[in-house]
Amino acid sequence: MIAVHKPSDMRDLMRLERTGAHSHIHGLGLDDHFEPKAVGQGMVGQVSARRAAALLLEMIKEGKIAGRAALLAGEPGTGKTAIAMGMSSALGPDTPFTSISGSEFYSLDMSKTEALMQALRKSIGVRIKEETEIIEGEVVEIQVDRPATGQGTKVGKLTLKTTEMETVYDLGTKMIESMLKEKVVAGDIISIDKATGKVTKLGRSFTKERDYDASGPQSKFVQCPEGELQKRKEVVHTVTLHEIDVINSRTHGFLALFSGDTGEIKTEVREQINAKVSEWREEGKADIVPGVLFIDEVHMLDIECFSFLNRALESDLAPILVMATNRGLTKVRGTEYESPHGIPMDLLDRVLIISTVPYTEKEIKQILKVRCEEEDVNMQDDALNILTKIGTETSLRYAIQLITTAQLVAQKRGASEVSLADIKRVYSMFVDVKRSQGYLDEYQSELLYHQA
Ligand SMILES: Nc1ncnc2c1ncn2[C@@H]1O[C@H](COP(=O)(O)OP(=O)(O)OP(=O)(O)O)[C@@H](O)[C@H]1O
Ligand SMILES: [Mg+2]
Questions:
Q1: How do residues 155-181 score in pLDDT, each as one tens digit?
Q2: Does residue 406 sit in the same domain as residue 329?
Q3: 77 CB within 6 A, ligand 1
Q4: In a domain, 55, yes or no
Q5: For residue 137, what are the contacts with CB-CB under 8 A and spacing of at least 6?
């Protein structure tokens, strides 16, 4: 028996996000004809790379190009990672998108190829169709008996009705908690999945429409269900192959999905699961959804990883591989020979290359503006202009970092807007790479001088 259900609220837990380097990116910023807008969804310029990424995205959505690979290549800070993040948001939650950086493979406490295998399987979705039994009805009454001690098991009763019948159900602690979490009250129409115990609020009963004020404007009103309380219903849910691996791995169990501490997964477990999934496919119970595996800084992988990837892409359970690098002709790690982008020729052969180009001053200014909005920073015009200059002369990333620090300096002097002086201040406090390198060179020559 292969289990495919993960704890119901896991998605929410994994979606917590803070303001990160790419949090202003919400998609590829396309118009109705799938053409990139000059500015859209946080994306600025880099139009031809975005157009290519959009085309790739269309093919991914149609599920047509499993086993294919694309490479974003271009100078540092030209938006390669940003475009990949844009693709991820545009794909939506039902197509898996896994993002990992080439250097991470060396810091994980498992072998590089196991880590790659897990990343590949995280990027393949299995859409499973199931018949489940649900209980659906209008809540007549919900009653919870709190134990006198305040601790221990809670018990309660739930009365549900349809237009034709009414039944009282006993509630255990877990169900009570689900009910409380969903804030279920009398007059709600709810659905309970019998297998998982998941409670879903479908809306308020029409008969309660008159209590509109009490329900609040966001309430949706639905009819009281007809017929039996218990029904069979077809539901579709998507899990990744990796999730199925972990749930069924006796040594770890699904709790490992929370901690991410999955360790190595036995080959036999994977073989069993592959066999089961292909059986389900034949029976029409499941479809494969090839997702995207994004490997950033791909030149950090070594020849062993590249061979493994190449082989994995041949398999019929393969995702779409998207890679990014800022290297030109570089030695392939673990070998003595050079290859374009540090990727072996046999893998390069199957790759569609998308190149990114340096930004114009106008585009840099626009990106900085978008970042200011993202970080809730008000910046005076002359400050933004000088920051743009800094961006063109040092790097976009450096300029972006100065936004946050300049904001702190402005706040410290009690100002609500970042001024030119604040930018100057942080520019002298935090040096960019060129200046830092300059200082070190100077320092070094002094040292050598003293040694002589
Ligand atoms: N076209 C763009 N629109 C909006 N923001 C962008 C764009 N390009 C880059 N950025 C932002 O600029 C910063 C640097 O870009 P990014 O990290 O994507 O560069 P990269 O090409 O991946 O560089 P590296 O080669 O160093 O990894 C990020 O914060 C990114 O979100
Ligand atoms: Mg990058």
A1: 889 999 999 999 999 988 888 888 888
A2: no
A3: yes
A4: yes
A5: 160, 161, 162, 167, 189, 190, 224, 225, 229
